[in-house]
Amino acid sequence: MSDDLFKNIISHSKEYGFIFPSSEIYDGLGAVYDYGQNGVLLVNNIKEYWWKSMVQMHENIVGIDSSIFMHPKVWKASGHVDAFNDPLIDNKDSKKRYRADVLIEEHIAKIEDKIKKEVEKAAKRFGETFDAEMYRSTNPRVMEYQAKIDQINARFKKALEENQLDEIKKIIEDSEIVCPISGSRNWTDVRQFNLMFSTQMGSVAEDSDTIYLRPETAQGIFVNFLNVLNTSRQRIPFGIAQIGKAFRNEIVARQFIFRMREFEQMEMQFFVRPGEEMKWYEYWKETRINWHKKLGIDAAKYKFHDHLKTAHYANAAVDIEFEFPFGFKELEGIHSRTDFDLKQHQELSGKKLQYFDPELNQSYIPYVVETSIGVSRTFLAILSSAYQKEVLENGEERVVLKIHPTLAPNKVAILPLVKKDGLPEKARALFNSLKMDLYTQYDEKDSIGKRYRRQDALGTPFCITIDHQSLEDNTCTIRHRDSMQQERMPIDAVHRLILEKTSWNQLLS
Ligand code: GAP
To answer: Inter-axis angle of helices 165-174 and 140-161, to 10 degrees?
Structure first.
């Protein structure tokens, strides 16, 4: 993993129509991006994979689509007006602004990296008999690093819990954290900054209300809890899922589509009996990590990370972290949100948000376990593990996106070997018969080698070549993206084969 890989992924995304900076002709808008012609297909497939796994595959989960604008009291009740803050710190020399918590977390990650290197070196030295756990608990240098991490973590946790901004600054100073730009330790005090965007609703300034662009989709689910309960046949435990835009005025947003100011979330709130929330929390941890693993990405790239300090609404929280090109970072959050949100909304709205449990013969405010994942982070995780540079037998290099075939933007490309002798007509006939069911590309420009490279770079899992033999015996060659193996097969069998290889069954079964 390296800066180079990250830079290559960013430029590949632009060159092949996956991601463009927003309003690029005006030099872009910070931390806002657009999906291009191939990116939007991948985004739609990611969302469909999530939606199907949640709504279609679970009898007890339904979906909704709530609006972005909501009553301002929603954000008062949810605690976002008072507590949706990031601790910020500026470096006085570079004038760059950072999230103080991120500076500390990155410092800890660097120490963890040192431990990893020590362990790897020792593993090489000792060979097969090496016991990594034993080494970690006995080697003085590793123990010293670990003690440092534990000490910083303990101080940091306490400072966050007690909202001691001075202490957070002191941790940064004591850890000798320097600004990556100026290299200096000349820091301002730490301040809290609210991340919500606000705007006015109503035409006359005096009459208008301040409303917020939602910073999470979850609240749209909470305020519809009663509507869904009363209009569906769902009984607890059941879930409500939603995919939609969220907005945060992120101050430190320098990691491409990892941290954006406008992004999409895929969230599911699972309503359970009070006291049963930890059972369901474990269930959703397991279910969600399996969802990721189905994509065929190296399992070592995922890990759970328990929160040091839970958000204002949670009694347990864990992140599924992914090893992005810039290190392990949050991909998805799973939170046990207690009855915080429904209780708050009940209080501020004056409406009873309770469930009558016929088995217990009593009413209660349900507890909630939430799963929440960003579309763009999933996109970046898939793209960065799919992106590979390979040197071929003839010495040439190819860039290939090894995206799961079901998620690939285009499933198949139809390529006549030459642009004459009736091959384009035959190829077009196949293209026309496939396009009703499959995103299919037709390409007759350039040499066949160049066209294969182009499809590899887009992640198209199959290429079908129509050649002169096709005219004689109605066969074609099918080329597999990952192995580059080619086989001859009847043209009539292409449709079924590709449908099967790219079907949702591959991910959902
Ligand atoms: N409803 C809970 C919630 O919003 P969160 O941990 O703040 O929790 C959930 O966000 C997920 O949303 C994250 O795991 C991440 O995938 C995505 N996300 C959050 N902020 C983001 C941003 N600025 N840009 C892109 N994705 C973001």
So the answer is: 160
How many C-beta atoms lie closer than 10 Å to residue 73's C-beta?
A: 14
pLDDT at 204: 61
E-strand ranges in 4-136 read 19-21, 33-35, 61-63, 85-90, 97-99
Residue extents of the structural domains in the chain: 36-76+195-383, 399-508
What CATH architecture applies to the domain 399-508? 3-Layer(aba) Sandwich (3.40)
DSSP 249: -
- Residue 263 CB–ligand 1 contact under 6 Å: yes
Residue 376 CB–ligand 1 contact under 6 Å: yes
State residue 403's pLDDT score. 98
Helix H segments across 241-295? Answer: 277-293
Q: Is 372 in the pocket of ligand 1 (CB under 6 A)?
A: yes
Q: Are 137 and 144 in contact (CB under 8 A)?
A: no
Q: Which of 381, 377, 383, 376 is nearest to 459 (CA)?
A: 383
Q: Token pair of 196, please?
A: 């919500």
- Please say whether the structural domain 36-76+195-383 has been given the CATH code 3.30.930.10: yes
What does the DSSP assignment read for 63-100?
Answer: E----SB--HHHHHHTTHHHH-EEEEEEBTTT--EEEH
Q: 373 C-alpha vs ligand 1 centroid, how far in Å?
A: 6
**pLDDT for the residue 128:** 87
Amino acid at 355: Y
Q: What is the pLDDT of residue 210?
A: 87
Query: Cα dihedral angle (282, 336, 297, 449), rounded to 10 degrees?
Result: 150
Quick one: pLDDT at residue 308? 73
Residues of the chain with pLDDT under 70: 1-2, 203-208, 312
What's the farthest any 2 CA atoms get from each other in the chain? 80
- Residue 305 burial (CB < 10 Å; 0-12/13-18/19+)? middle
Q: Tell me the CB-side half-sphere exposure of residue 74, using CA atoms within 13 A.
A: 22
Q: pLDDT of 335-383, one tens digit each?
A: 999 999 999 999 999 999 999 999 999 999 999 999 999 999 999 999 9
Q: How far is CA 176 from the centre of its chain?
A: 32
Is the beta carbon of 385 within 6 A of some atom in ligand 1?
no
Decide whether any atom of ligand 1 lies within 6 Å of the 377 Cβ.
yes
- Residue whose CA lies nearest to ligand 1 atom number 18: 374
Does the pTM surpass 0.85? The reply is yes
Contacts of 77 (CB under 8 A, 6+ apart): 341, 344, 345, 347, 348, 349
> CA end-to-end span of the chain, whole Å?
32
